[in-house]
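Give me the fold.
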Amino acid sequence: MDFSALSDGMKRLIASAVLLSATIVAPALFVGMSSAALAADTLTVDWPENDMYGYVAGMSYFIKWTPGNAGATVKIELLKAGKRTKWITKKTANDGEYIWTIPRSVKKHSKYKIKITSTKNSTIYDRSDNTFTIYNARNWWKEDFDSTWVIVGIEDDGSGTWENFSVHGNNPHKWRVPSTLVKSAAYKVKITSTKNKKLTDSSDKHFTIKK
């Protein structure tokens, strides 16, 4: 089409129509994309982010994330099968780390996720990519988690760095620490076969028992 023959008014009308079409079409390109996808490379849940690990109600854990551009504060939710089942916190500093003590009332389920959202812009959020399991506080050690690591809390590794403390295996033994044991940082656990005393192993590192 030869636009040179058109009047200035008609040219302005066509230009306005093109601009309006672009304004309508551009948002349509993102239909079906989640806010998390639109906010890619910003706020990101980093931990829990692995379905190979389980957690125990009543214990304390790290929730970690990449702050991105979510602002000064965020809110954190516990999702169960995709729906919020509990607020973890409605406002905390967007510093990438939060220590969460799972309430003992949280029931065993394998479809939990963490969701973190900016408190100022609800379109900036992210969820755990993978689901994780929370075990009951009273009888988690009776579970069959031979192929799963169960994190039973966080501990100081002795250098001031806090790390996850986890166990692996089928039906671990529950041990109530005797009140007669004295405070020490030199304890280890030794396990020996009752049929063959040559089959034995001890903890790689010492651990502390406090009064």
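Residues 3-31 form one domain.
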